[in-house]
Write a structure and sequence with these properties.
The chain is an alpha/beta fold and 506 residues long. It has 3 domains: 215 residues, no CATH class; 85 residues, no CATH class; 140 residues, 3-Layer(aba) Sandwich (Restriction Endonuclease), CATH 3.40.91.30. Helices cover 55% and strands 10% of the residues. The protein has 27 helices and 8 strands. It has a 5-stranded mixed β-sheet with strand order 4-5-6-7-8. β5, α24 and β6 form a beta-alpha-beta unit. It is globular and about 85 Å long. It starts with a helix and ends with a helix. The mean pLDDT is 93.
């Protein structure tokens, strides 16, 4: 979920935590003020250095630092990086239990770690703990450097901690709900996760910062998509990965896949077993992915491809257009990579067609309006009645950048408005991102229509917001959507839409 989609669902307390995470000494009284200032400063929120700085848990108490990591790992292993509160507790405790259980398996430890390196690390770890029954930031930093030099992952570190009787806590005691709640608060104050409530309380890593967190914490791929990556490798390639780690490489392909997963071999480490030519062969089989670059860049391109892979079913199995609706923003932005990865499109030309289909789905199924058929081919992409004597037209314009309202589009839209069989009350342009120039052109087009037609510009993101949220703004038992929500010339921003829905739908 994007930050802007989460903000309307957040209450004042949780909004204030987000504001405090990247804007110091800014005092605001209302929720709307907080939402506005967050949106205005979104570049600072998603600034890589800010995220990396707040991922440094050296100064946090040990339990909070560890739980911060466990919570983020649990979220990163979930599609959309979102979990409700009870699932957070369950997954964090299950993750701790799994690490403790694996640490007790001597054969597992021997097969995953160099014996000499393991001895060096565990003795250093025990010495650090022995001094005063806790680790200070200096000792943690030294252990991090040693871990890196010995080639141990964060998970290896936790396994060795557990062997030393120090994971998750002394005597391998699991953390409780109160401690997890404290860590959840700390992560919000760092601006790394957001909390919102609908029917349940949810925690989410906003999509704007998810990739940074994935790479910084080593949560490179969700288990589900990592398994798919491994299953698409050949049996010989799987053997090559296991052999490079000194692990048994015999068995069926299914056994080999499970073995790679069992021994927690990170995707980047697994792919490092291949030379550049073999990585290029893998990349050639992934449509729309860049093949060139350094070995590390090739590996990152493969990982990012699979991380973009959705494993969720269509939101509405009874209407195939819902599949396009689920990728509405990606279609608007012509995000070819994500669209190809998830088999939404077969060729680039599909983007406009499916963008239009998804928009019709919104008006018909989400807004519950009856669309009007238009004869011929030279007409707007969609039409609904405004009232018995007036219509609303819309047209889709996908764009990889800000929408450029060209003279060609100006004449095209003017022709659609003048050719309509009755007065067009509103003409809506649905696109990716709206420039100030496009807003200026909208006002000019309104003047040229000579019918006082309002020309509304709306991003796919904001139209989807209306589709999902409009009924919540109504106090009616069986609400009907009111097209007055869109009756404006200029950009229909999130704040504008919220204001208009508050009075048009009540």
């Amino acid at each position: 979920m994007k930050l802007q989609d989460v903000l309307p669902k957040m209450s004042k307390l949780y909004l204030s935590r987000t504001v405090d995470s990247f804007l110091k000494d800014v005092k605001m009284k209302s929720e709307e003020e907080m939402r506005e200032v967050i949106v205005k400063n979104i570049e600072e929120f998603q600034y890589k250095d800010r995220v990396k700085r707040n991922l440094n848990f050296l100064e946090a108490d040990r339990d909070t630092a560890l739980l911060n990591e466990m919570i983020l790992m649990a979220l990163m292993d979930t599609e959309g990086y979102i979990l409700n509160e009870s699932s957070i507790f369950e997954k964090v405790i299950a993750l701790e239990e799994q690490i403790v259980e694996e640490s007790e398996d001597d054969d597992f430890i021997r097969s995953t770690m160099n014996e000499e390196y393991y001895t060096i690390y565990i003795e250093t770890l025990k010495a650090a703990w022995q001094k005063d029954e806790e680790l200070n930031s200096h000792e943690i930093n030294i252990l991090n450097v040693l871990r890196s030099q010995l080639g141990f992952s964060r998970r290896d570190h936790h396994l060795i901690e557990s062997r030393a009787g120090r994971f998750p806590q002394k005597n391998n005691k699991l953390h409780n709900h109160r401690q997890i709640e404290q860590a959840l608060k700390d992560l919000q104050l760092r601006g790394l996760i957001l909390r919102f409530k609908t029917n349940d309380a949810y925690y989410v890593i906003p999509s704007e910062i998810a990739r940074i967190i994935r790479y910084e914490l080593g949560g490179e791929l969700r288990a589900e998509t990592y398994k798919q990556l491994l299953e698409e490798l050949s049996k010989n390639q799987l053997k090559q990965i296991l052999s490079s780690f000194g692990l048994l490489s015999s068995g069926t392909k299914e056994v080999l896949v499970q073995r790679v997963i069992k021994y927690n071999i990170l995707p980047s480490k697994a792919l490092s077993a291949f030379a550049n030519p073999e990585l290029e062969d893998i990349l050639r089989g992934l449509e729309g992915v860049n093949i060139s670059g350094t070995k590390d860049e090739k590996i990152s391109n493969i990982i990012d491809y699979y991380e973009n892979l959705s494993t969720s079913p269509a939101s509405d199995p009874e209407d195939e257009r819902s599949f396009y609706y689920d990728y509405f923003e990606e279609l608007a932005y012509r995000n070819y990579n994500t669209l190809r990865v998830n088999k939404v499109i077969n060729k680039d030309l599909d983007v406009e067609k499916y963008f239009e289909e998804a928009t019709k789905y919104i008006f018909e199924k989400k807004l519950k309006l009856e669309t009007v058929a238009m004869p011929g081919s030279k007409h707007a992409d969609g039409k609904v009645k405004f009232n018995s004597k007036e219509s609303v037209l819309w047209d889709n314009k996908s764009s990889e950048q800000e929408y450029v309202f060209t003279e060609e589009h100006f004449q095209q839209f003017l022709g659609y408005i003048r050719a309509n069989d009755n007065r067009v009350n509103i003409f809506i342009i649905i696109t990716s991102e709206i420039s100030s120039d496009a807003v200026s052109k909208a006002h000019k087009l309104k003047a040229f229509t000579e019918t006082d037609t309002d020309i509304a510009l709306i991003s796919a993101e904001n139209l989807k917001f209306v589709a999902e949220e409009w009924e919540a703004y109504s106090n009616q038992k069986n609400p009907a959507f009111n097209m007055q929500v869109f009756n404006l010339t200029g950009e229909l921003t999130r704040a504008t839409l919220q204001d208009r829905m508050s009075w048009a739908l009540s």
